Amino acid sequence: MQYLYVRVVKARDLPSKDVTGSCDPYAEVRLGNYKGTTRHFEKKSNPEWNQVFAFSRERIQATMLEVTVKDKDFVKDDFMGWVLFDLTEVPKRVPPDSPLAPQWYRLEDRKSNKLKGELMLAVWWGTQADEAFPEAWHSDAASVGGADALANIRSKVYLSPKLWYLRVNVIEAQDLIPSDRTRFPEVFVKAALGHQVLRTRISMSKSINPMWNEDLMFVAAEPFEEHLVLSVEDRLAPNKDEILGMCAIPLQYVDRRLDHKAINTRWFNLEKHVIIDGEKKKEVKFASRLHMRICLEGGYHVLDESTHYSSDLRPTAKQLWKNSIGVLEVGVLSAQGLSPMKTKDGRATTDAYCVAKYGTKWVRTRTIIDSFTPKWNEQYTWEVFDPCTVITIGVFDNCHLQGGDKGGGGGARDSRIGKVRIRLSTLETDRVYTHSYPLLVLHPSGVKKMAFVTQNALHPSVDSESTR
Q: Bridge-partner residues for 27, per DSSP?
């Protein structure tokens, strides 16, 4: 896919237009009916913008490119000069060629007379493989307004946080002090990590020295900024528990276990909290204790996906990883026959993007505005460690764009159009596949085929000298 790129770098020696003897300049890049503008600077005759504009060749309706410098004004913006480019004379750039160096161009008036002031520009033909593509303003999204809306249509790459199993082996407690000494306490331990809350059974030894020897398993994410909060509680009656003591353990100080060797146990002091005049205060008296073995398990893989469609089977600890067996390349090309997902200005429309997930890496293509046959033509790569894994590609409708009937709200969720799953074990090494896959979506009535998405996949491969 070819694009006309315009990088507007800066201007110098711009003439003053205001009565104050200064100017508030911005640049306007126009190609036919498409127009993109830079931000404006106040009272600056040497502004630096360094902004990129991309015009899809498929939608170009003119033969001349206009780059105009204007002075922002309350009533009407003043024309300060422009630079014109004939599209037939614009050079082509093919990576891995270095980026095209910008040049200074003298501003002219509408009669081609030289004016005061110069503009530094670079104009070239390129493709979506160009480094400038992700940061560029795109003509096919010209109807999208606002910085937040533009941020919602750019392609992005995300990395999932590394997940660890947190094993809490609750062994016993000592010297508990229940408020009612005339009864046998029914003690259990409640553990909380963020929104995860687990509890042991009530100890069979109904005394002030109860025993459990019970494992509680949590999932913790790096960086370890949370605290594991434990409370020893006495069941006084149904739905009525008394806290006998609490302790909070920062995860950053918890030992990490990578092999079969057990982690040493530790005793933790329990602090009892009392409420005085509505405020919770710590009661510093004789401390009860809790005996536990706590560790972050690095030898297991945290199952954050369905086991039938897992894209990653590696243990958490990087020291235990095997070498990669190659690289998976996926080109998300296009989709056909997408269903209308919403109405905009009284007509049905869809603003589609793709999300692909494999391992810890998520990728999101740019959003193609108002199209039932979007073309993305974007390529991504992943390292592969196990051929018995699955890559998942989902297609969504972007509801966060201005003008949509249901868009704009921070709580709005993008609608799922459908998904594709591809098992890497069905692909051959060193072979390129180009297929159209049916998009599947799960409805209460069952699985339905919604449309077709096309993508290009290259199976992981290994060289004799290096991994490709």
A: 69
Which two tokens mark 161?
């946080």
77 Cβ neighbours under 8 A, 6+ residues apart = 70, 71
Q: Which CATH architecture has domain 163-297?
A: Sandwich (2.60)
Residue among 88, 27, 102, 36 at smallest CA distance from 57: 88
The structural domains of the chain, with segments of one domain joined by +, span 2-142, 163-297, 307-458
**Which tokens go with 151?**
């941020």
- Shared fold status for 163-297 and 307-458: yes
Output the pTM of the full model.
0.75
* Residues 241, 189: Cα–Cα separation, whole Å: 11
**Distance (Å, whole) CA 27 – CA 38:** 5
The CATH architecture of the domain made up of 2-142 is Sandwich (2.60)
CATH class of 307-458: mainly beta
What pLDDT was estimated at residue 73? 81
Residue type, position 95, single letter: P
The pLDDT tens digits of the residues spanning 268-315 come to 999 876 555 555 555 555 579 999 999 999 999 999 898 899 999 999
Centre a 10 Å sphere on the Cβ of residue 269 and count the other Cβ atoms it contains: 10
